[in-house]
Design goal:
The complex is a heterodimer of chains A (111) and B (112).
Chain A (H helix, E strand, L loop, with lengths): L3 E3 L4 E4 L4 E7 L7 E6 L6 E6 L4 E3 L2 E6 L4 E6 L8 E8 L7 E3 L3 E6 L1
Parallel strand pairs in A: 2-11
Antiparallel strand pairs in A: 1-3, 3-8, 4-5, 4-9, 6-7, 7-8, 9-10, 9-11
Chain B lengths: L4 E3 L2 E4 L5 E6 L6 E7 L5 E8 L2 E5 L7 E4 L6 E5 L8 E8 L6 E2 L3 E5 L1
Classes of the chains: A mainly beta (111), B mainly beta (112).
């Protein structure tokens, strides 16, 4: 079983749509989770972290369900500039802070 | 705003040659990482470095790979004898005591 699993997409949505990405993880001991954004051929950049019951940052909401080992990212009122790959990331529950990465979900927001 | 820098941005090399990828982490950061991403695939952890030594390495990080922090500023990844399958984007990241890892822009390595 993959350590962090995501639907690769692509998701094609119109501007203004609400889109949700899902992610599952296999290591129940993992404590910290993150959503990173990666533009084509660029480095990953932290979008938001998800620690306990989830958090919200503007149009973005991340939720964590530890019982189901499931993480989600909701983007409301999507913009053209939201087009990117969204990477679900978890820690490896060790002390070295190594990150375990999902394959990423590709989003294209269309005018 | 401080940032992680990497050089070169693109490195082309012949199979069997040695390459050194360079990174300058954010000053005062304590933890350093190398990741790679083969085109179309996920980001893969290679190695973490803390307190002047490797704290963990993946199975990808075999004897052909080594890391150094020679002068307290630079953080280098050396591949001794490159293979075709080493072609990838290599990202350096650094981290202070918090949770966020800050990534450099990457070096695209092409092995011919």
């Amino acid at each position: 079983r993959k350590e962090v699993e995501q639907d690769p997409g692509p998701f094609n949505v119109p501007e203004g749509a609400t889109v949700a990405f899902n992610c599952t993880y296999s290591n129940s001991a993992s404590q910290s989770f993150f959503w990173y954004r990666q533009d084509c051929r660029k480095e990953p950049k932290l979008l938001m972290s998800v620690y306990s019951s989830g958090n919200e940052d503007g149009r973005f909401t991340a939720q964590l369900n530890r019982a189901s080992q499931y993480i989600s990212l909701l983007i409301r009122d999507s913009k053209l500039s939201d087009s990117a790959t969204y990477l679900c990331v978890g820690d490896n529950a060790g002390n070295n802070r190594k990150l375990i990465w999902g394959l990423g979900t590709s989003l294209a927001v269309n005018p | 705003e401080p940032e992680v820098t990497q050089t070169p941005s693109h490195q082309v090399t012949q199979m069997g040659q040695e390459v050194i990828l360079r990174c300058v982490p954010i000053s005062n950061h304590l933890y350093f990482y190398w990741y790679r991403q083969i085109l179309g695939q996920k980001v893969e952890f290679l190695v973490s470095f803390y307190n002047n030594e490797i704290s963990e390495k993946s199975e990808i990080f075999d004897d052909q790979f080594s890391v150094e922090r020679p002068d307290g500023s630079n953080f280098t990844l050396k591949i001794r004898s490159t293979k075709l399958e080493d072609s990838a984007m290599y990202f350096c990241a650094s981290q202070d005591g918090g949770y966020e890892q800050f990534f450099g822009p990457g070096t695209r390595l092409t092995v011919l």
